[in-house]
Amino acid sequence: MTDQLGALTTIFTEFYYWVTVVMMFLIHVGFCVYEVGVSRYKHHQHTLMKNTLVIPLVTVTWFFFGWWIYWAFPTGPGIAPSIMNGSSALITDESTFSARWYLANTEFMAINLGDRISGVFWAAFLLFSWTAASIVSGALIERITTFAFGILAIAIGSFFWVIDAAWGWHFDGWMLKILGYHDAYASGVIHAIAGGFALGVLIVLGPRIGKFSSSGEPRNIGPRNPWLVTVGLFLIYTGFWGFYAACNIPIFDLGPEYGMEGVTYWTATNIYVTPTTLSGITFNFLMSLSGGLLAGYVVAKGDPFWTYSSGLAGIICASAGNDLYHPIQAMLIGAIGVVIAYKMHFWVERKFKIDDAVGAVAVHGYAGVAGLIICGFVLNGYPSSGYSVGAMWDGSTYASINPLGQFLGAIIMFGVLGMLPGYVIAKILNGMGKLRIPREVEIAGLDYEIMEDDKDAEKAVASSTR
């Protein structure tokens, strides 16, 4: 870098994404603390180890093939033309700070003074991958084998969510162009898919021992440590600031990208290259969090676990359109999503005997789907991407946001790329006898802790040590 202003711009962007990675690490810490707070003491070490293993398993697989998938498949199997091939300047021009240039050139090297962006942007997406795997982790606690969870974490963290990100969370994604899909802060591309994937696994995995009575009525296995649940969720809230910031491009020249040659206009954009500001999304983040917390407190009649979880559900529901919503819209949409997620959780639990230990399917899956569908109605006719403003490089245009496109997008995210793969992989693992821990181990505890008043646990441990 020989130009001081250009150097400052590049180094600022490098530091910007580095900070988002550090903040998003708190999401993973929060999931660890939260899950331990929900689980029973005899499963604590296994719960922590399961979350710890997400880091190396997903990181290494993300390095070898996850990141490549995101850049390889945005246009689907020949579904839509690519604007990335329309102009070589988009990939090779180093004279301006072109987002496409630094994102497309992702050769992994040691210390490369010519590339200060790939590593930190790669890491930001990696932390999204950890989040997807951790969402699934919470739903399955106290009964899944470490081996099975490792396979599932790699599948959702480095494969399936990356496909939906390429299709619907990429400036060149076919879902934007054809469906008018819009999901600025990942109601669907991380949360709905992970919730759907978890539901698919839960159908095969089955409930924890004692969750349902002999008549089929669900029993409440509440959190064992409300303090840890509270701290964990507040850490997740905090990490979500980094999540939102990482979904933006911090400084971008709209002039040439919007077909305005000779015009320079620098601003932040979202991942679709639509102009936005950190100031605007700060309003909407806090209002959707508040709407979720208030709705959760009311609908759950003051239950602390669901109140705290509902704050997260409110953010997730509003995230699809939080780049364009008015703050009051964000608050109301967050509240509506919480009511839908809460009601759906208990209806599915009773109707289908699904034991979602932490409400992950509800908070992330149902709230995410609701957020996508609501976005289609509230933002009907708005641009799905910054490139909707003008023609693409091949002369075609992007579809605008619309209810049908968002509904179809929700089905793709939650069902096609989420629940279906989760179910199939769990079925295969179950057929191999690798999915669920033995009954006696579940009773004794995955940490083999013997409770003095649990004679069955004592017998289980004794038999396992012969």
What does this structure look like?
- The protein is an all-alpha fold and 466 residues long.
- It folds into two domains: 4-435, Ammonium transporter fold; 439-466, no CATH class.
- It contains 17 helices and three strands.
- It has helices at 4-38, 44-72, 89-92, 99-104, 118-139, 146-168, 174-179, 187-205, 226-246, 254-257, 278-299, 304-318, 327-352, 360-378, 403-431, 439-444, 455-464, and strands at 248-253, 266-270, 275-276.
- A three-stranded antiparallel β-sheet has the order 1-2-3.
- Strand 2 and strand 3 (275-276) form a beta hairpin.
- The chain is globular.
- The model is unreliable at 86-106, 449-458 and 460-466 (pLDDT under 50).
- Outline the low-pLDDT stretches: 86-106, 449-458, 460-466
Global mean pLDDT:
89
CATH topology of the largest domain: Ammonium transporter fold
Number of domains: 2
- Report the CATH superfamily of the largest domain: Ammonium transporter AmtB like domains
Structural class: mainly alpha
Shape type: globular
Major sheet: size, sense and barrel closure?
3 strands, antiparallel
* Percent in strands: under 5%
Q: What's the arrangement of strands in the largest beta sheet?
A: 1-2-3
Give the beta-strand count: 3
Measured between the Cα atoms of the first and last residue, the distance is 67 Å
